Amino acid sequence: MDPWLVVGLGNPGPKYAGNRHNVGAMVVERMAADAGVTLRAHKARAAAAEIRLGTMPGGMPGPKAVIAVPSSYMNESGGPVSALMKFFKIPPERLVILHDELDVDFGAVRLKLGGGEGGHNGLRSISKSIGTKDYLRVRLGIGRPPGRMDVADFVLKDFNASERKELDFLVPAGGDAVEALVHRGLTDAQNIVHAH
């Protein structure tokens, strides 16, 4: 079976590490920690590791996956994603992108295939670089900015104290959603994940 490529979006460096925009990267970092692997620098301008996604019924290791976080800025995510796909020979239908989503309530996780980018520069860059919008997305809800706060300011701010407590649930839920997607397919995974 072809491996999957699971990419968590974010901006590089400690300044951005706690930002709402980086929740995708947080999920992949947690997946690496849970699998006991280290994300290592890859020539595709990303930090990547190979893992098995969960366990199959009967205890067999789950499917192979490359998990990665681009080391470029968010609006240049397409280059690293495209390079990883070429390097590991991964087709678009086995690409899963984890990203922050303003149109999903904070703490909720939604799955979808393709569609628009909703003004998300990381998704726009990926769609352009790989030549299709038809890839799987794990949309990690960050909610809408309060009042008249600018969207760009909102996504580049750290989660607030009460949100950080919820992140302990949202981040693992993102990893669970990836496993559900890979093990059960999109429709079944949506039924499970969207029920929460």
From TrEMBL:
It is found in: Cytoplasm. Keywords: Cytoplasm, Hydrolase, RNA-binding, tRNA-binding. The keyword tRNA-binding applies. It comes from the Bacteria. The active site is at 21 (proton acceptor). Its EC number is 3.1.1.29. Coiled coil: none annotated. CDD domains: PTH. TRNA binds at residues 16, 73, 75, 121. InterPro entries: Pept_tRNA_hydro, Pept_tRNA_hydro_CS, Pept_tRNA_hydro_sf. The record marks 11 as: Discriminates between blocked and unblocked aminoacyl-tRNA. Monomer. HAMAP family: Pept_tRNA_hydro_bact (MF_00083). PANTHER family: PEPTIDYL-TRNA HYDROLASE. Catalyzes the release of premature peptidyl moieties from peptidyl-tRNA molecules trapped in stalled 50S ribosomal subunits, and thus maintains levels of free tRNAs and 50S ribosomes. Belongs to the PTH family. This is Peptidyl-tRNA hydrolase. It comes from Dermacoccus abyssi. The gene is pth.
